[in-house]
Structure formats: structure tokens, C-alpha cells
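Progress note, sequence design subtask.
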């Protein structure tokens, strides 16, 4: 429960006026926060990494940000998976009921090949408040095999005549650790735009090879990628990719954040700092602070993740800088913020074992002499819980603010001037240790293989009273899945800490339960001093109400607009909707703006709606339909780079992967003796009405109608990015941009018509093609056929290329549209075939059931042993779940998270042990 307190200090005759102004400020803050109705989201997944063809299971908790109860504004949630180039590979929609959503994503290898990905989750309403509110989870999809190579590499930067020289030493080993010796490798070093190094190099007898190249100034070090291709044809064109992580000490970013926001001349300063390497990770350092005349005034050393604090009193007219000694013996200088001659400073002592925060506010003499009234506001989750007015007539102001006024989590204190402008701000963390208490009791101390596990779950509040709530449980095999509570965090760290901070927090789980450790408590306070916080600027509170770009979506609506041939809205137009799944026949009329809406439509996984509009005379001609369709956001590029599993593996990581490989081999060995190998007869994909010069289905790559139906509104360009390996925009030596498939120039043929024939002069070819790539989507296409090998491209060479062209440098993409009229398709008037983004509805996680005499044959090698996103505790706070162990003995990690959806949350981690069952 959030309490409220008003405090007044200063002369009695001014108190009434100050109280009125303070009340107005508090009212403005709370009204503003209420109107924003910000939502917070937490996403639990069954495990942190996956293998190809796996399933990602998830549960989402959507909260009202102010009180952390179930959000009511949004009824739909969007999830998208983007690759390390920030291209969205998959996007789904999930219905939200009472703040809860759950579902699954099949990790199809064709859609999501091996690599690094980011899972983003958001509501449409959350998009109004910036990317910091969007939930992001990084994960890796691997294809683990004992046929894979392991790569160890070290990167070193050397300065040579003011140029950066990169020295890469690599060693290639087979999975059995036998060196990949005397093997010719094609090496490429690239960033997102250019290739900076390429060469064919042979490994020595021990699998080593050395790469040395000059790193150009314009190269994007944060996106450097090393690609290696085995040139031995018998190896099946093996390719490996990995990020090249370089940290140039002189490029380290060191930032200084004075407590409260400013350095003011003559006033003691408490300054926090944070050092970050080029790779975005923390950098530990030590340094000294000097005046402009090189007089030392302070020194500091980082204490955790590149962060720390130091104290000194700045003087008027002085400029201060910190000098850091680099590994090469030279010094790098970093300027401290400029000194203000007049102003106020804010210092907060939030001692671990104290029941109050000590707040000290000081000012320069000119401000104290003015005698004006100032205000201090304390907010938690955007709600003003504390307010006080004061002046500096007696010098520095000291206030003791009870922590009981605030709920657990981040509290934001703001010093407000007489003009209602924010002067100083500071955030602190309050921990009442009042989260939900969760107990998990197992029915046995040790389980056998294929044994039944029964778990009793009990949830109580801080007073021991039973709690009804919604919880999700993931059980994973430690022999195949490595869980890391420090790296991943939980619903508690997300909702109470990181969701209120800007940017990424390194190892957020480290800060959980910080009240149990003085060192962690200090590190957490330094994090809050250095990390920016999300939320509105103070000036927004007193500005006119803002309009929101993205409306809330409380339910699934089908909405559009009917216009006439002059693009004017048609009022009172009859609009009909027909659907087979779900079966619907609905009618409505447009309003004065020509807008129509269909409501109360139950979400289904895939749906197609036929919509027809009629004019006032009941005719479908001379009217058109414009549908309100979800316009996907474009988020910032991914900053974090994940290392592939096969790169620089330590012993424990190798043991984990090796265990996966051995389990898979044992499964294949056992099943090959029991089950007949599946005989797969691959039928040729035929594209109906294709104008393929080789005949329908005669192509290197074919995307047929069945696959396109699953793609929905995916554009032609995105389809090609996903399905055609090596397709993308490339820059030639002359600076021209063209689309290529690897090294082959792309030609776009639509319904047998060469699109380049109609290209106007002066328009670059890449822009011309992009118009088509963006215009067509999967719903308008019957099939895509790609001809890149000479076997299939030869007929296109003679048809579309000049005889003086080097034929072997070209590839052709034949697109067959539903209209079949080439690149001049016009959509039907008066009708619309509406295929909204499909909903993903939750499926039940498959749990095998074994009897007491089940044979353990190593065919059950689940990595996620159990996933249950819908555990509901009863009035006694109790719930029970049961599942069966798999064939791999060892230990299982349990992670149970959830909330009563009324402001209280809890997390419980536990383990259970399994052993090999003696066979009779």
C-alpha cells in the first residue's frame, strides 16, 4: 500500500501558501501519471538458449506500472524475434486476459537458422513511451553436432604509426579435439557495410592460423564479424561465423554523474562514474582527478562493473579532468562536467539498516539569501508518495524521510524550484523484503529415470497469509541447459529495478536481495547513481496533455474506412464481413468519417476475413476499402553480440555440449535398432501458373503457396531475406548499391516480365527494386523461384541478358503473383481479403506418462523437462503439479515465478536430483 506524507519547514507565515503550492504539485504529478497509464511487462521463457527445431515456451505478465496490478488497457501482446542484423524474422500476436498471456514459438530451422537472436515483447500502448519499456531477451539457437568444429581465437590490437593493427590467432579443432590441420580456409572480416579483409589461408598442422590486418578508422568495431569457409569441397561448403570483439583502451567511455545532477562551486560533491569498453561491457579502472594546473584533488577506483564514486569540493572557474593510465603507459584524459557558479545540490544517504533516508539539500549563498520556497517530491512508480517544502534561511536543509512511505522498488526524489522547474534529481532503492514467499516441496528426496515427480507449492505473503495468484514453472535438465540467475534476473529484478532504468543492465540478477549484503547494497546504489531512469521529464507535468500516437488495444478489432473514387469518406455505407474460421457473417454501417468497426471477434490462430463495402445504392463499384492494419515498429539495432557455442569454449561449456551430443547419438543408436528409418520422398514443389522458363518447379530455391500462406503480410523483400541465403544489398567498388545473392547480381522477373525493362532513367536500381520488394507481400504471391546455378539460370541468360554480359555473375528471381499480370497489379475495388497477423494460442506442453515398468532406453532426452505457465494457487495458497523425469540422470533446475496480480510478486529456485534406475 502506498502512503502519503506532506512535510513543511520554514517560517510559519509562509506555510499556508507553501502547503497550497505543494498540494498542487502533488496533484499534478498524480494526475499526469494516471493519464499516462504506463504498462510494465515481464516475460518468462522455459530456458535461456535453444537448438534448431526446438520450441520456445513463454508466459507474459502485464502490469499497471503504478501499482503492479493486472493491466486493463491492453488485450493484445506482440512478440517478435530479430536476428543479429536486427531483421525481424518472426512476429506473432498473443491475446492478454487479466494481465496474463502465454504461448509458444516453433523455432523452424528454415525461418530461424543457427545464430544470435533477440526476443522483443510489447503492447501497442507501450510504444508511446519509448524503447526502454520494451522487453528484450537475448538467446542463441544452435545446431549442436559432433561433426562441428571448435574455434579458439584471441584478438590483439597493436598501434603502428598511428594505425590500429589487428592480430588474430585462431585454432580450429574437431569436436573430438583433433586439430583441423593443413586446411585451406577463406577468411572474411566485415562489418554491416564493408569487407575489410579477405584472404585464403591454410591452417598449420596443429590447426592454427594467423590473421593480420589494418583496421580502418571508418570500420564499425562494434559490428566486426569473422567468416570462415572451408574450401575443401568434400566438407560440404562448411562455414563458420563469429563476432570479432576488440576493445581499444583509448576508446573506453568514461562518464561522470554528480549526485543530484550538478557540480556547483563551493558545495561538496559526491560524483559517481561508469566506464564502458567498446563492446558495451564494463571496464574496471583507476584514475586521479586534476585541476587545470595539474593539482591532484581526488582519486578513484571502480568497485563493481566499472562503477564507483568519489568526493571533492569543486571551485569556481576551475576545470577538472580525470587521467587514466592505459596499458601502453600513456594517459587518457576525461573532462568532468562544467562547474556551475550558482545552484543547489542534493545528497541522499540510504543506509542499509536504517528505516529512513537522510536527505541533505544545500545551496550557494545567493540562493539562500533570496529566501524563496523550494519543494522536495518523492515518487514511487510515478506516484507522488511524499512532499515537503523548505527554504535555505538556516543554511543546508536536512530531512529524514521514512522508507515506510514508499513501496519496495525505485524511489525518485526531485528538488523543485519556485518556478516549478526541476533542479536536482536522485533515485534510490527501497527494500521492505515483502515479496511473496514461495515453498516448493517434492514428494521424494531422489528420483529415478522416468519416475513421477509430485511438487507441492505454497505461496504466502510477508505476514504468512495464503496468496492466490498466477505462476509459471520451468524445469530444465542441468546436463543440457545452463541457467544463470545472475545473468538473467527474474520478475522481481525486472519489475522493481531494471524496468525503471534506461539501457541494459549487466548481470541484473546480481542485485536481487541486495539488502542481505552491504557490498551489494553499495553496488546497487552506485548503479542508480550512474544509470539513467525511464519516465517523463518534470516539465511535462505542467505542459498541455500530450496526444498518444499508438492507441491501446483492449480487444481484437477489425477496423477500416470506406472511401469513394475521389478518396472521400463514404458515410452510412454497408459493410459485410464473412469468415469460415471462425464462422462469421456480420454487417455494419460506416460512421460520418466512413469508418467501420467489427467487435467481439474471438481470436484464432489463423483467420481470413472477406470484407465487402457498398455505396448508398447498394453497389460495390466506385468505393474502396482501406484497412487499419498493424504497422510494425522499427526498433534500434541490437547492441549486444552473443558468442556462438563453438567459440572459445571453457571446460564446463564443452561438457554441457558434449553431453547433448552423446545423448543425441545414444538416442539415434537405440532408435535405429527399433524403428525403421523414415523414408522421405521429396515431391517437387510446383508453382501454379508459373512463367518459369525452365518449367514450374525447376529452380534452385522454391517458396510455394503452402509456405506463403503461413507468411501472412511478410513483404517480398523480407521473404527473400529469410529464404534465400546470401540475399541482400551490397555495395560495389564504385559505391553503387545493388541486390545480390552472395556474389550474383539479382534480376527480378514478375509473371515472366523483366521489371528492369520499365525502369525510368535516373532511379538507382536498388531503389527501383525496393519498391517491388516493399509493395508485394506473401498474400499476393503464389510462388517464388530462384535461379542462381547455371543449370537453371541458362535459359534466363539468353532471354534477359546482353550477349556481351558475363552470364555467371547473375541470378534471377521469378515471382508468380495471384493477379498474374506482371508488375502492374491493382487491388480489387469494393472488396478486401483481410488476413490479420495470426494469434498464437497456448498449446499444452507435452508431458510423457510412464508406468512403473517402463524401459529406460535413452529415447527421452528432453532438455525442458516440464513447462507449466498456468499454475493457479487456491484460497489456501496451495497448488500441486506432477511430471515424469527423463532418461538422462543428474539434476534438474526449477524456476517458479509469478504474481497475485495485485502488486505482489515472488520467485523460487530449487533443484531436484535424479539417479540411474537399476534395471531388473
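Output:
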Amino acid at each position: 500500500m502506498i502512503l502519503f506524507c506532506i512535510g513543511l519547514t520554514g517560517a510559519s507565515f509562509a506555510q499556508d501558501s507553501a502547503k497550497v503550492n505543494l498540494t498542487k504539485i502533488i496533484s499534478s504529478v498524480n494526475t499526469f501519471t494516471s493519464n499516462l497509464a504506463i504498462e510494465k511487462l515481464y516475460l518468462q521463457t522455459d530456458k535461456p538458449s535453444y537448438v534448431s527445431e526446438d520450441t520456445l515456451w513463454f508466459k507474459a505478465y502485464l502490469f499497471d506500472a503504478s501499482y503492479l496490478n493486472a493491466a486493463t488497457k491492453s488485450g493484445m501482446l506482440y512478440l517478435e524475434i530479430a536476428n543479429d542484423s536486427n531483421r525481424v524474422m518472426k512476429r506473432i500476436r498473443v491475446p492478454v486476459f487479466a494481465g496474463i498471456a502465454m504461448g509458444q514459438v516453433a523455432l523452424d530451422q528454415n525461418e530461424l537458422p543457427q545464430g544470435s537472436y533477440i526476443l522483443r515483447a510489447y503492447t501497442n500502448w507501450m510504444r508511446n513511451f519509448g524503447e526502454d519499456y520494451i522487453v528484450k531477451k537475448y538467446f542463441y539457437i544452435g545446431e549442436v553436432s559432433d561433426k562441428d568444429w571448435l574455434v579458439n581465437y584471441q584478438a590483439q590490437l597493436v598501434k603502428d604509426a598511428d594505425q590500429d593493427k589487428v592480430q588474430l590467432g585462431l585454432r580450429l579443432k574437431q569436436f573430438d579435439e583433433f586439430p583441423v590441420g593443413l586446411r585451406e580456409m577463406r577468411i572474411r572480416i566485415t562489418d554491416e557495410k564493408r569487407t575489410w579483409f579477405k584472404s585464403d589461408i591454410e591452417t598449420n598442422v596443429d590447426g592454427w592460423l594467423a590473421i593480420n590486418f589494418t583496421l580502418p578508422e571508418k570500420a564499425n568495431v562494434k559490428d566486426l564479424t569473422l567468416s570462415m569457409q572451408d574450401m575443401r569441397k568434400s566438407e560440404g561448403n562448411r562455414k563458420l561465423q563469429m563476432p570479432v570483439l576488440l576493445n581499444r583502451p583509448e576508446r573506453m567511455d568514461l562518464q561522470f554523474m554528480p549526485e543530484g545532477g550538478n557540480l556547483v562551486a563551493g558545495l561538496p560533491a559526491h560524483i559517481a562514474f561508469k566506464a564502458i569498453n567498446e563492446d558495451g561491457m564494463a571496464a574496471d579502472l583507476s584514475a586521479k582527478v586534476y585541476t587545470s594546473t595539474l593539482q591532484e584533488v581526488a582519486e578513484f577506483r571502480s568497485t563493481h562493473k566499472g562503477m564507483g564514486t568519489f568526493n571533492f569540493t569543486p571551485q569556481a572557474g576551475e576545470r577538472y579532468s580525470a587521467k587514466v593510465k592505459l596499458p601502453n603507459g600513456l594517459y587518457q584524459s576525461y573532462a568532468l562536467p562544467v562547474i556551475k557558479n550558482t545552484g543547489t545540490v542534493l545528497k541522499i544517504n540510504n543506509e542499509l539498516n536504517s528505516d529512513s533516508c537522510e536527505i541533505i539539500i544545500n545551496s550557494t549563498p545567493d540562493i539562500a539569501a533570496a529566501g524563496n520556497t523550494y519543494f522536495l517530491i518523492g515518487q514511487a512508480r510515478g506516484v507522488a508518495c511524499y512532499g515537503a517544502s523548505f527554504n535555505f534561511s538556516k543554511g543546508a536543509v536536512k530531512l529524514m524521510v521514512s522508507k515506510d512511505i514508499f513501496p519496495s522498488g525505485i524511489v525518485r526524489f526531485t528538488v523543485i524550484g519556485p518556478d516549478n522547474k526541476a533542479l536536482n534529481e536522485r533515485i534510490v532503492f527501497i527494500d521492505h523484503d515483502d515479496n511473496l514467499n514461495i515453498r516448493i516441496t517434492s514428494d521424494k528426496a531422489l528420483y529415478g529415470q522416468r519416475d513421477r515427480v509430485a511438487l507441492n507449492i505454497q505461496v504466502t505473503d510477508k505476514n504468512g497469509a495464503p496468496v492466490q495468484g498466477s505462476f509459471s514453472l520451468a524445469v530444465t535438465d542441468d546436463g543440457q541447459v545452463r541457467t544463470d540467475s545472475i545473468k538473467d534476473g527474474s520478475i522481481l529484478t525486472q519489475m522493481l529495478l531494471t524496468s525503471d532504468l534506461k539501457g541494459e543492465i549487466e548481470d541484473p540478477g546480481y542485485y536481487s536481495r541486495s539488502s542481505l549484503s552491504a557490498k551489494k547494497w553499495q553496488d546497487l546504489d552506485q548503479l542508480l547513481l550512474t544509470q539513467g531512469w525511464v519516465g517523463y521529464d518534470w516539465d511535462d507535468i505542467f505542459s498541455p496533455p500530450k496526444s498518444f500516437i499508438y492507441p491501446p488495444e483492449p480487444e481484437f478489432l477489425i477496423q477500416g474506412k470506406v472511401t469513394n473514387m475521389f478518396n472521400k469518406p463514404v458515410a452510412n455505407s454497408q459493410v459485410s464481413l464473412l469468415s469460415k474460421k471462425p464462422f462469421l457473417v456480420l454487417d455494419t454501417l460506416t460512421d460520418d468519417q466512413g469508418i467501420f468497426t467489427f467487435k467481439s471477434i474471438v481470436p484464432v490462430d489463423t483467420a481470413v476475413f472477406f470484407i465487402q463495402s457498398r455505396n448508398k445504392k447498394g453497389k460495390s463499384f466506385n468505393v474502396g476499402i482501406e484497412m487499419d492494419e498493424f504497422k510494425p515498429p522499427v526498433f534500434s539495432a541490437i547492441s549486444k553480440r552473443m558468442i556462438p557455442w563453438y567459440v572459445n569454449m571453457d571446460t564446463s561449456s564443452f561438457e554441457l555440449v558434449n553431453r547433448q551430443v552423446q545423448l543425441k547419438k545414444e538416442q539415434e543408436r537405440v532408435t535405429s535398432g527399433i524403428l525403421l528409418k523414415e523414408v522421405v520422398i521429396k515431391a517437387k514443389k510446383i508453382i501454379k501458373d508459373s512463367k518459369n522458363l525452365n518449367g514450374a518447379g525447376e529452380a534452385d530455391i522454391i517458396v510455394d503457396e503452402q509456405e506463403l500462406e503461413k507468411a501472412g503480410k511478410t513483404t517480398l523483400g523480407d521473404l527473400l531475406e529469410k529464404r534465400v541465403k546470401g540475399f541482400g544489398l551490397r555495395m560495389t567498388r564504385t559505391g553503387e548499391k545493388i541486390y545480390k545473392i552472395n556474389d550474383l547480381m539479382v534480376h527480378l522477373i514478375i509473371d515472366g516480365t523483366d521489371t528492369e525493362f520499365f525502369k525510368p532513367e535516373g532511379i538507382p536500381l536498388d531503389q527501383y527494386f525496393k519498391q517491388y520488394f516493399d509493395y508485394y507481400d506473401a498474400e499476393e504471391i503464389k510462388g517464388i523461384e530462384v535461379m542462381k546455378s547455371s543449370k537453371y539460370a541458362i535459359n534466363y541468360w539468353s532471354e534477359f541478358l546482353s550477349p556481351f554480359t558475363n552470364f555467371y555473375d547473375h541470378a534471377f528471381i521469378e515471382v508468380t503473383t495471384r493477379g498474374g499480370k506482371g508488375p502492374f497489379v491493382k487491388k480489387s475495388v469494393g472488396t478486401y481479403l483481410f488476413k490479420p497477423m495470426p494469434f498464437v494460442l497456448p498449446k499444452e506442453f507435452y508431458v510423457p506418462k510412464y508406468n512403473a515398468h517402463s524401459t529406460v532406453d535413452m529415447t527421452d532426452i528432453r532438455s525442458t523437462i516440464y513447462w507449466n505457465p498456468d499454475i493457479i494457487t487456491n484460497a489456501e495458497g496451495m497448488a500441486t503439479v506432477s511430471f515424469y523425469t527423463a532418461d538422462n540422470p543428474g539434476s534438474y533446475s526449477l524456476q517458479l515465478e509469478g504474481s497475485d496480480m495485485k502488486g505482489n510478486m515472488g520467485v523460487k529456485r530449487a533443484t531436484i536430483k535424479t539417479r540411474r534406475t537399476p534395471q531388473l
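The two ends are 59 Å apart (CA to CA). Work on this subtask will continue into the next period as scheduled.
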